[in-house]
Backbone:
């Protein structure tokens, strides 16, 4: 983020979800008034390529933590077992976040309490594992690809895989491959970023939302936060666009479109 601020000489820089320090992959960065749109990207499903090591859990559920629980030889785990388990993981589940996470407890981050040696009990939350598939199994390492709902911890998935197998496990590698329709293959490496680098338009980034085209009169109303009449527009969240200019994101309901976030200058 600091590099982006330096390159574009602005402090108005935001992102749509951090990565663990050892992880790589896609990070969507928004500049200027587009930072107001972060939540509409953050809520999208995310796809990851992950590797877990069977045989030992850790305090952080990844390779940065201290060993926890017994060390178990995963020699008896078969590929057939793994494939069957991954199929069972698909769907809606309750997940307990890692103790070392950014969740707040009593106004303090969970990881701050855990670093002091306090026992942290985090409430389970509902997540959705849309897809999960085995990419490679070379004992003791399991590599899998998964698409999950926002807020899902892949570290916790690795932990839970180890628990179900009875071996313990922790995450050793993680790469975010996609956020919604945005793919890491189309992203720009940070070291190649310059002020001359063409930026993707917010409309392009939010293409998962239906687009409502406005004429000049209607956009003049919407840019000031006013509602626009559209009796044939289905209910839901939409993009408001005048030609190629993004006005903002709005909620369509009952024949009216009410702006939720306006990014265009009045």
Residues:
């Amino acid at each position: 983020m600091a590099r982006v601020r330096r390159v574009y000489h602005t402090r108005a820089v935001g992102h749509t979800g951090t990565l663990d320090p050892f992880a790589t992959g896609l990070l969507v960065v928004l500049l200027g008034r587009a930072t107001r749109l972060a939540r509409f990207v953050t809520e999208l499903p995310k796809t990851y390529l992950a590797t877990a090591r069977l045989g030992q859990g850790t305090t952080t559920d990844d390779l940065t933590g201290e060993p926890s629980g017994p060390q178990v030889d995963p020699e008896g785990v078969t590929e057939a077992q793994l494939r069957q388990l991954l199929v069972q993981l698909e769907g809606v589940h309750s997940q307990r976040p890692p103790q070392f996470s950014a969740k707040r407890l009593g106004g303090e981050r969970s990881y701050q309490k855990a670093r002091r040696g306090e026992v942290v009990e985090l409430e389970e939350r509902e997540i959705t594992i849309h897809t999960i598939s085995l990419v490679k199994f070379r004992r003791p390492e399991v590599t899998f690809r998964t698409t999950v709902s926002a807020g899902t911890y892949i570290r916790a998935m690795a932990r839970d895989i180890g628990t179900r197998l009875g071996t313990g496990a922790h995450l050793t590698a993680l790469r975010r491959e996609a956020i919604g329709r945005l793919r890491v293959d189309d992203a720009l490496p940070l070291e190649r970023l310059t002020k001359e680098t063409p930026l993707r338009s917010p409309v392009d980034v939010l293409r998962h939302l239906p687009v409502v085209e406005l004429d000049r009169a209607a956009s003049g109303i919407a840019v000031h936060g006013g509602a626009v009449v559209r009796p044939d527009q289905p209910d839901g969240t939409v993009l408001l666009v005048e030609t190629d200019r993004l006005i903002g994101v709005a909620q369509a309901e009952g024949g009216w479109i009410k702006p939720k976030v306006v990014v265009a200058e009045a």
